[in-house]
Design a protein that fits this description.
5 helices; alpha+beta; 4-stranded antiparallel sheet; two-stranded antiparallel ribbon; Nuclear Transport Factor 2, Chain: A
């Protein structure tokens, strides 16, 4: 069901942004769905594996291995109701969906995720990078 929703969003993005939709590969869709499933299932190991390798190494080194803090800081943004900047704890996320996919001029994509935890409704931006054949999200893009 989630894959169908993602496909519909991608197709809608393709209709809205014309040429952008055709640039999104099946592998990219599968990767994004895997990330969404990891978040919905609160699977910290899988969430971390969906992050770009150099980015995750750098951030975990900076945070002295505090993986939970690292993951929680990915899911931040302004609450759509209060406009307050919040970090949503990944274990409290009740819903995540792709709100928009933006093709960047310099290459790559920015994914705008809509994330809810019962108290907040946040739009969060993550950049999808491709290193060789592997995809990985990079946080704090805005």
């Amino acid at each position: 069901m989630k894959q169908l929703i993602l496909l519909i969003l991608v197709l809608f993005a393709g209709l809205t942004f014309k040429s952008y939709g055709q640039d999104i590969s099946d592998k990219q869709i599968t990767f994004a769905n895997g990330f969404i499933n990891a978040v919905v299932n609160h699977n910290s190991k899988s969430i971390v594996k969906h992050l770009e390798k150099n980015y995750r190494k750098e951030q975990l080194k900076f945070l002295e291995g505090r993986t939970e803090q690292f993951i929680n800081e990915l899911f931040s943004g302004n609450d759509m109701i209060s406009d307050e900047y919040v970090n949503i704890k990944y274990q409290e996320i009740t819903k995540i969906e792709i709100s928009e996919i933006i093709l960047l001029k310099e290459g790559g994509y920015t994914y705008i995720f809509r994330i809810r935890d019962g108290k907040h409704d946040v739009l969060c931006s993550l950049h999808l990078a491709k290193n060789g054949k592997k995809y990985g999200f990079i946080g704090s893009v805005g």
